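User: I've been trying to design a sequence by hand for this structure and keep getting stuck. Would you show me what you'd pick, starting by listing the structure so we're on the same page?

Assistant: Good idea, let's start from the same input. This is the structure you sent:
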């Protein structure tokens, strides 16, 4: 199924969306994760067999950062201690900066 939001076309698997539930606060983040996962899979299919060792290492690092970002966002959503929230926000900023490079 395709959805166009603000000029961005997103394909997603309805089964994945159904499995996520419909909590309004988490829905946008989870849909973004589904989109990123599908985009990574599409990129991997497009580059299958044509990537160098350096490209594969960069891709693996990006995937690791993406998973870390997802984990930190989940922890941040439930963190109540201000010091812990600050630490998670700094970690999230660091990961976002590294992913942007």
């Amino acid at each position: 199924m395709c959805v166009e939001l603000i000029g961005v076309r997103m394909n997603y698997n309805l089964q994945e969306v159904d499995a996520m539930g419909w909590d309004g606060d988490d829905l946008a983040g989870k849909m973004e994760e589904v989109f990123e996962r599908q985009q990574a899979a599409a990129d991997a299919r497009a580059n299958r067999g044509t990537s160098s060792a350096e490209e594969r290492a960069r891709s693996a690092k990006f995937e690791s950062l993406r998973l870390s970002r997802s984990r930190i966002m989940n922890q941040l959503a439930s963190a109540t201690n201000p010091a812990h929230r600050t630490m998670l926000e700094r970690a999230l900023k660091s990961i976002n900066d590294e992913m942007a490079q």
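That's my pick for every position. To get oriented when you compare it with your attempt: The radius of gyration is 16 Å. The beta strands are 2-5, 8-11.
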